[in-house]
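Table 4 source record.
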Amino acid sequence: MSRDAVDKDQRGRLVEELRSAQAELADRRVEASAGGGVVKVVMSGTQECLQVVIATELLTSGDAKRLEELVLLAVNQAIQESQLMAARRLSPFSDESDQ
């Protein structure tokens, strides 16, 4: 087998492994909360916001500013955790591409 054929085969396997890792990340979840758990956000490993849960007592308090701040905190935390999870899962591929 020629070197070009081997390189093409390796690239094909790498692409398949990368697709598999991306699909795995789409199925994985992180959860972040704020305000002692009164706001919870669930996000996928591909940074898709899947769920926002707000405790009834926070909604009935009428404190819109606090609600906005807590949602923002929880969403940003979920994004960071999701990005970290993705970076860890995809890091072997960046190592491969550096070679």
